[in-house]
Amino acid sequence: VVRAEQLGAHITVADLGEFGLIAAIQALLPADEALVVGPGDDAAVLQVPDGRVVATTDLLVEGRHFRRDWSGPADVGVKAAAQNLADVAAMGASPRTLLVGLACPPDLPAEWVLQMIGGMLAECGRAGASIAGGDVTAAGCIMLGITALGDLAGRGPVTRAGAQPGDQVALAGRTGWSAAGLALLTAGLAGVLSPELAELVTAHRRPQPPYLAGPAAAIAGATAMVDVSDGLLQDLGHIAGASGVCIDLRIASIPVAAPITMAAELLGANWRDWVLAGGEDHALAATFPAGTPLPEGWIAIGQVRAGSGVLVDGASRSGPLGWDHFREPGNYQHN
Amino acid sequence: VVRAEQLGAHITVADLGEFGLIAAIQALLPADEALVVGPGDDAAVLQVPDGRVVATTDLLVEGRHFRRDWSGPADVGVKAAAQNLADVAAMGASPRTLLVGLACPPDLPAEWVLQMIGGMLAECGRAGASIAGGDVTAAGCIMLGITALGDLAGRGPVTRAGAQPGDQVALAGRTGWSAAGLALLTAGLAGVLSPELAELVTAHRRPQPPYLAGPAAAIAGATAMVDVSDGLLQDLGHIAGASGVCIDLRIASIPVAAPITMAAELLGANWRDWVLAGGEDHALAATFPAGTPLPEGWIAIGQVRAGSGVLVDGASRSGPLGWDHFREPGNYQHN
Predict the structure, then answer these.
(1) Nearest CA-CA distance, residue B35 and chain A, Å
(2) Complex ipTM, two decimals?
(3) What pLDDT, in 10s, does the model give residues A33-51?
C-alpha cells in the first residue's frame, strides 16, 4: 500500500489505479468499533443500537462547491464532511460515520485525494464520526458524493415540522462568516488580509458546525431544527413552511462578529445580506418552547408566531433570501 | 407541485428551480412505513430494528457510466438503483431505502429527472426498497451519487473474507449479458437487432440483480459473497484475496445463454471474455460449505482451494480480468 508521504505531486490516481487508490485511502482510516464491517467489502455495516438510523447525502462539484485554487484538498475534505455531518446534528442526532464517493480525473495527483481524505478525517474527529467506505471512479472534474449516518440515542428526531406559535427561535454557531470569506476570495483579496479578516476566508474553506448543539437541543426539547446551509432566512423558511408558522427574527439579537462588519465596509457590502442570507457556515437554527432554558451554545434570535413566512423585526425582507442551485448566475455556487 | 405528465421537454430543471424540482420528485415517492422521517428534512430516519444498518454508495457519471443517447432516463434510474441495491444484497441483507444525490446541468429537461426517478422507483419496487431523500445541485454533466441502506434481519453479514478451502463456489444471476449488450451498442447495432439479441442491450441498460438470492445465501450458510460489478474473475478475486484462498472455476458450469454466443459470433468476439470479465449484470457470487444444498437461484460453478488467485479450469487466465476505472482507455466505462 502506498502512503501519502511517499507520493510526490507527479503520482496520479491513474498511476495507483482504482484498487491501489482504494488501498491507500483505507490505510489512512483508523479503526472504528461501531463498524461491524468497515471499508473494503460490498457495503459497510454500522451498529445503530437505537434501531433507527439517520441518513443524509450531499454532492459537491468542483468549480461549483469548491475551487482547487481557493481551497486546498484538506479544506475540501473538511467542508464535504462538515456539511453532511451537520445535517445529522440538525436532526438532534450524533454523527457516526461517512460514506465517501469520489469521482476525479485520472491525472489528479493521488496526493490530493489522500490529503482530502485527511481533511475529512479531521472533521470526522470533531464530530465523533468515522469513514465506513465509499466508491472511486473517473470523471472530467472532481465530484464528491458524501453520505452521513447518525444515531438518535433513543431520542425522537427533531424535524422541521414541530415549531409552535409562542416558541423561541434560537441559533447555535455562526452565520455570515462563509459568505464574507467568499466575498473576500471573489474580490481577489485572500492573500493580503489581516489575520482577523483571514479568519473569514478560513471559515469559508472550513466550516465549523456546532455538532454537539444538535443533540443538546433535542435533549432540551427543541420543537424544530434545521441546518443553516443555504442562508438563515431561507432555512428558517423551511421550518416556517413545514410547521405552518411565521418566524420573526430580531436582527439586533443575531451575533455579528467584528471581522464581518470590517469586511462589509472594505467591500462596500451589506453585512446583513451575509448574516441573514449567507449559507455554508452550517449553524443550527431551532425552535424551543417559551420559557425553556436554552442549552449551552444556543442564543435566542426571535419568536415563532401564527402565520407564515420569515420576518425580520416584524417586516418582510427585500434583499436576498438564500440560494437556489439552478437559478444563480455564475459558476461558483455554494452548498 | 409540478407533475411529470405536465412537463414538456422544454421545461428545464432551472425553470422549476431547486426547490420546485425537489417538490416534483417528492410527489413521485410512495409512502414507506419504515421511514420515521422521509424526504424533505435535513436527513431521513430509517427504522433498522436489527440494531445494525448495511450501507453502500456509488457514483454514476454521464459519459462514463451511462450515455443519454444509449439509455433513456428510466434506464439510468434502474441501473443506478440496481448497482447499489445489489451491494446490499451481497452482504446477505435486504435493501430498504436509497438516498439519491443528483447533479445536472440547469438546462436538463425536468422530465428527464422525473423519468429517471421513475426508473429508480421501479427497481426499488423489485428490491423491496424506497427512496428516503437526497440532494440536487447543478453540474456540467449529470452525476448521480446513490446510497443504499439495508437490513440484516438478525443474520450476520456475509463478507468477502470467509471462504474456506473445500467450499463450493456458486453464482446467482447472469454474467456477460451487459458486456455483450454494450458491445452491440458500441458496434452501432442497437437499432437492427432481433428480439433475442436486443435482450442483451436491455440487460446493459437495465441490470436485474437477483436481490432475494443474497439473503437466501446468508440463510443457507454462505461463507463469503460478492456482487459481480466489475467482472466475475475480478470480483471472485476479491473473495480469494480477502479470504486467503484460491478459487477455481469450471467454465463448463457457468451458464452461457444463446444470445451471448450469437452476439459473439456476430461481432467476432470471445464470449468467454464477456462471461468471465464483463461487469454490470450484478450477479451475486458466493461460497458455501461443501455439501450445503444451494438455495434456489444458485448454481455451483467451482471450488475453493488452498492457495491464492482465481483459476479457470485449474489454469490462470490470460484474457481481461475486469475493470479499473482509472486505467481503461476511452470514455465509456462501466460501473
Answers:
(1) 9
(2) 0.93
(3) 999 999 999 999 999 999 9
